[in-house]
# Entry
Amino acid sequence: MSSLVHKELDGGIATITLDSPPNRNALSVRLLGDLEARLNWALAEPEVRLIVLTGAGPVFCSGADLKEQRIEPATGAGDAPVTASFPEILGLIWESPKPVICRLNGTARAGGLGLVAACDFAIAPDTASFAFSEVRLGVVPAMISVPVLRRLEPRAAAEYFLTGEVFDAARAAQIGLLTRAVPEDRLDAEVARYAEMLLKGGPEALAITKRMVRDIPQVSFEEGLRQMTALSAQRFTSEEGQEGIAAFMDKRPPKWVP
# Structure
């Protein structure tokens, strides 16, 4: 049985592709299992410096595979596999020490927007559309709310979570769901631009900065200064920091740049 998620490594960039176009890359149990395996590979592979998550076909991800969520009333058979490995996947992306870029090849809905929000960067064609469609099915955007509500403006979250209304890529960028919405013919160039910038950063520095951006707003001003004073001193004296300074003084690229 072929995998529904493919991987490719080139120049330090691991591209992970959802490849189930017949059901619009829906989050089936099988696809989620394959995705978790690919993410674990990328995180463990020393040559991988950053991850690009994308999809095959015209849709990035349509959300949960609804065929798998139905329970047969006649038999009362089992529980719908509503969670599968989705929480673990969202955690792997969110906690990844390696930057993750979501390259949306097209539209995303419901659970697919959880993947988008968990990534550090999300770049989409300006023709893509989005919707948190759960309430219109009588369910709720539960698991995805954990990363999504950390990205969206509160008013926008209430608007789209409660109405299920479809909104465009420009609006998605405006409310914080996307990093950039670009013309379709510029999508790959924009993803490459971000990847090139990220590869210039020290791997340790990127991992620490990712945590810092996420965690420091949650602590008091005084405590933040205390923690960051210690971190600043530690990084300037670290091996990676000293290499970066030496490279700057010598007018050469640091060792970590491909």
In short: Residues 29-44 form the longest helix (16 residues). The first strand starts at residue 5 and ends at 10. The chain has a mean pLDDT of 94.
